[in-house]
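Here is this case:
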Amino acid sequence: MKEYFSFQWHITDDCDQRCKHCYIFSENNCKELDSMSWEEMEEVVANCEDFCETYRRLPYFYITGGDPILHPDFWRLLALLKRKGIPFTILGNPFHLDDKVCKKLKEYGCQKYQLSIDGMRETHDWFRKPGSFDITLEKIGCLKRAGIRAVVMTTVSGANIKEIPDIIDTVVAHKADVFAFARYCPTSEEKDTGMTPMEYRELLAACDKKFKEYEAAGCETYFNKKDHLWTLYEYETGKFKIPEDAEEGIIYGGCNCGNCHMTILPTGDVYACRRVQNSRVANVFEDRLADVWVCEMEKYREYDKFKKCSKCELKAWCRGCPAVASGARGDFYDADPQCWKDTKAAVRRDEVRGNQT
């Protein structure tokens, strides 16, 4: 169990963009924009504090939306978190950032600000809106001048998989502090991420090579291997080894869902994971989160239910991304669609048979 417990808190749906892969509008493009009142936000903080006191954890908020800075009580919320000494990261857009705003964010205690780059200029602006690519890169400098760590996140799908190496070069050139990527989670309207397991493994191999080259050159960007399939890749390549003292039945890593994470939406609905469309477990205004954790959240900790991962030697460290599995197949415990374990062996068998004939 980690010292901090993270709450991904969507305080508003209000946003300057309508990104093509946004979860908020994926099911209903005419969705009414929800937003918390100040009294409701105070209630959320109190409920989260109670949770952390009960389980001897420290709260960490990932404040997002929509674009959280558009909430009328955004700065009031940051002042509250500063008074309470609660650390936070902002996940938002670049459009309202400048040197003055970034300095103010730093004064209120913002540790990191996460921006998105979802392709090179043409692709990114198609996903988001014209001009977004250049503005995002420009604001990395604003954040860094204020002393805030600039995090760049990419959502990978078949639409941009070939551009990821170029994105890495671009992010490094603009001196982002952290770069990471995660896979697109399909919604009920579409079930395919557009990537085969072996295509995704090839991407990891290409990125691994690029990461090592940059690290050897003294690059200041930290490459966060966020996707848990990195564990499988590094197990195959020898970088990760199963510890000899690992205990049976203990979960050491992998997906944080059910372990140290919850999502709170502007309506107060609590999700085990925002990326899992049907993972609502409670409402923060009606339920005590400390009780939800040992009741409704338990169904996301039944590790022997994983159809593929439960039989894998990496179960305690990997388990792929259950959110992607849920989006593609409607089952949190189904196999990760991009997991190549066994698929890789099958491809090799087919190649051998082809050579023999």
Summary: The CA atoms of residues 114 and 151 lie 5 Å apart.
